[in-house]
Prior knowledge:
Blueprint: H1 3-6, H2 23-31, H3 34-47, H4 49-53, H5 55-60, E1 61-67, E2 70-75, H6 78-86, H7 88-99, E3 106-111
Parallel strand pairs: 2-3
Antiparallel strand pairs: 1-2
Amino acid sequence: xxxxxxxxxxxxxxxxxxxxxxxxxxxxxxxxxxxxxxxxxxxxxxxxxxxxxxxxxxxxxxxxxxxxxxxxxxxxxxxxxxxxxxxxxxxxxxxxxxxxxxxxxxxxxxxxxxxxxx
Length: 118
């Protein structure tokens, strides 16, 4: 008797829901959710931020989140915020290159110290 024949057959569900699904198809569905996709994008940008903006600027600013297609960046001072605003088009292009898609249309900058990581 084969192993497949030894497994009990599942009964049709009464609640109308489908049975088990492959993990890959579930992850594909989740990746299509806008909030999750934005979260994944900001995570990738945060990990590769130095490559996006350069070593010096990465010390003075950090990506916070994507709001639609606008990248919100926190700068440590008004002077650095001005620098980021000046380079906004370049930052958006490099961010899109890093993400491999046109996720960033614009950059908005706020001033304030980034929270320290434990």
